[in-house]
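Section 3.1: Structural characterization of target chains.
Under the original work plan, the team committed to producing a structural model for every single-chain target entering the pipeline before any wet-lab resources were allocated. The record below documents one such target. The sequence was received from the expression subgroup and is listed exactly as submitted; it comprises 131 residues.
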Amino acid sequence: DNRLRVRGRRNGTYNCTISNNIRDYFQHGVFVTQVNGTLNISAPGEPTGLTAVISESNSTHVNITVSWESPGDPVTGCVIYYQPKGGPVISDRVSGGETDTHSLDGLQRGVTYYISIVALSPHLPSPLVGP
């Protein structure tokens, strides 16, 4: 779940802290408008079709190609999260809204990894998709 905290009660540009359920934080400048007491802030849709396929391996390591379908404008990139079972969450930021694949290299062979993705926009991240 994404949470947005805005300090201010008028139309304008605010610096906001956005956090999600795996405790990663993004700093964005968000333009907020208020209509009849309702704040209007848009977020991108979710990436769909998230897949992860082993693209290369040796006796100790594997490379995985992660692919997805972008939700389209106004996506400016994404963040891929991967976590070895019982280990820390690692993130890779991918720039550009047109990109729909990313390689995770040097992962440990024989370890289960949980992979999730968040689309980024100039305003808010999408909901977390995966694992």
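The two ends are 14 Å apart (CA to CA).
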